[in-house]
Batch of 2 targets.
Target 1
Amino acid sequence: MTFYTGLTKRQGQTLAFIRGYMRRHDHAPSYREIADGIGVKSKSRIHHYVYGLKARGYVRITPALNRSIALVHPQLPPKLVSAIEKITKGPSGKSIFNAVELARTMKELGY
């Protein structure tokens, strides 16, 4: 299994399952499919794992929609994705680019 920084073993399994499922099916799995996929009986437990992934920046969730789990870029650390999103959105919603802020963030993250 792939190691994910800052995640419990079950959160890592959940994230790996979500990524694999989305690669194969082009949409997010349901909580029941995740539970079946990682061998957990309780959907509420899956809810706990998925919201833990959200809190750590690995996924986004749209409330009140089925299959609304969206992966944050799978190859970049969540902190970096968050920083890039923050610095590329201007006040009007138009994309801007701040190279100094990006370079500082990447240096802090060890890139």
Target 2
Amino acid sequence: MTGILEWIIFLALSLIAVITAAGMLLTMSRYRARLALMASFVALAGLFILLGADLLAAIQIMMNVGAGSRGFLHDYATGQTTSRGTISRK
């Protein structure tokens, strides 16, 4: 790839990672926070690929899939979220 294309991809992935990490912190919904965290991890894996660290990117994706699916299954199994993503106290 050319230098300018790598720079544009780097800026885009960095912006996505920062915005989704901020969205994770600012949302009150556990579901949306988990989706933002997963998007941030995917952007971070893209940055690892851009740096040539393919193994770190693969590990990042595997951790993302494992943690995300475990969290969604935990919320579904315990009934802690409603259709709006808020914690139910029943």
